[in-house]
Design goal:
This protein has ten helices and 19 strands. The chain is α+β, with helices and mostly antiparallel strands and about 375 residues long. The chain folds into two domains: about 260 residues, Aminopeptidase; about 120 residues, Alpha-Beta Plaits (2-Layer Sandwich), CATH 3.30.70.360.
């Protein structure tokens, strides 16, 4: 911060915050449902090109990449923000202003991250700052839900294999610093049977009965408070009519923990629960084998951790303190999970401001002093691009 060029970049980050907020709104109003991020990606590709990033391109998964060479190729830092939202096609994504508040689906998670990503490049350019190492800016796909980190897996396995030294994700709001990343396993479980008339075929095993038994058994599982470990039945479905025994019923289950061992234990217990529910439903109606079950893994997000004493964590905490923030450490699940699981030093930072209602259509972002988040992300990028 003592360097004149860095001071100039920080000043530009503050003075151009209105442009950053305008970007944030514009990005939010381009729909980016799960697996359909291309339209928003095209806008980020256009912005990257306009800002003069080199080798702007879209990889096989749909990630948008742009390079800003440093004085030397290494260390190579990736700064990323995800394109996708949780909202399905057809969601009204218009943003309304209520004083300092912006209200609209995805306005914080993660249109804010994308806007800060762009603001970092703009401030570096305006102040003519050249980093020591090279920085690759990435607007990535597949962070939310069943996207299963497909953007990160493509990036590290195929697009830039073995080429990344450090990783910074900008996600959501606030000034949090995250270096412990929660892993998850997600399943779709389907029970199938012959089905029939609710009166005439009474006595056949019921797939919805099996779902109910499984959900009840799952809710009785005991999980540790430390490391924090959780489970949830998030969606259920099946059947065609109130007076028909369904031929199929399904549910989707989310398991999470920051500890790989605890997640594996929970995973094993889930499978025991599912097998027991199937056996119970068949036994209740004396029809062994008539009801069958399919268990499909639809999401596998590895847990990861970057040590608190590592360079990337300490420099991120220092950047937070430098802008007057009190760095609150937190747990989360984000793009940083995957590089951290590979042993690549990774950290996730909030983009400033104050967010509420994430993943709801009433999501809001308070822009009060949001420029501090932009400055912090800029400082962290500069620090992590140094040896």
């Amino acid at each position: 911060m003592q360097q004149p060029a860095v001071r100039a970049a920080l000043a530009k980050a503050e003075s151009s915050e209105r442009d950053t907020i305008d970007d944030q709104i514009r990005f939010a109003e381009i729909p980016a449902p799960p697996f359909k991020e291309a339209a928003r990606g095209r806008e980020l590709e256009r912005v990257f090109q306009r800002l003069g990033l080199e080798r702007v391109r879209v990889d096989g998964a749909g990630n948008v990449l742009g390079e800003r060479p440093g004085r030397s190729p290494r260390p190579r830092l990736v700064v990323a923000a995800h394109l996708d939202t949780v909202f399905p096609e057809g969601t009204d994504v218009r943003v309304r202003r209520e004083g300092r508040r912006l209200v609209g689906p995805g306005i914080g998670d993660n249109s804010r991250g994308l806007a800060v990503l762009v603001a970092i490049v703009r401030a570096l350019n305006l102040a003519a700052v050249r980093t020591e190492g090279s920085v690759t800016f990435v607007a990535d796909v597949g962070e939310e839900g069943l996207g299963n980190l497909r953007g990160m897996k493509q990036l590290f396995d195929s697009t830039l294999p073995g080429q990344v030294d450090r990783f910074l994700a900008i996600d959501g709001s606030g000034l949090h610093v995250t270096h412990t990343f929660v892993g998850s396993r997600r399943y779709r479980v389907t029970y199938t049977g012959p089905g029939g008339h609710s009166f005439g075929a009474f006595g056949l095993p019921n797939p919805i009965g099996a779902v109910g038994r499984a959900a009840a058994r799952l809710s009785d599982l005991q999980v540790p408070d430390e490391p924090r470990t959780t489970f949830n039945v998030g969606r259920v479905g099946g059947g065609t009519s109130v007076n028909a025994i369904p031929s199929e019923a399904w549910m989707e289950i989310d398991l999470r923990s920051a500890d790989r061992g605890a997640l594996s234990v929970l995973d094993a217990n889930l499978h025991k629960v599912l097998d027991a529910a199937l056996a119970e439903e068949n036994a209740r109606w004396r029809a062994p084998g008539l009801l069958t079950m399919a268990v499909d893994l639809v999401g596998d997000r590895p847990a990861g951790r970057t040590l608190a004493g590592s360079l990337v964590v300490q420099r991120s905490l220092s950047a937070t303190r430098a802008v007057g923030g009190s760095p609150a450490e937190s747990l989360s699940s984000s793009d940083a999970n995957y590089p951290a699981s590979l042993g690549i030093p990774a950290v996730e930072l909030g983009g400033g401001g104050r967010g509420t209602g994430a993943h709801s259509t009433g999501e809001a972002f308070d822009t009060t002093d949001s420029w501090l988040g932009t400055q912090r992300a800029l400082l962290a990028t500069l620090a992590l691009a140094e040896k």
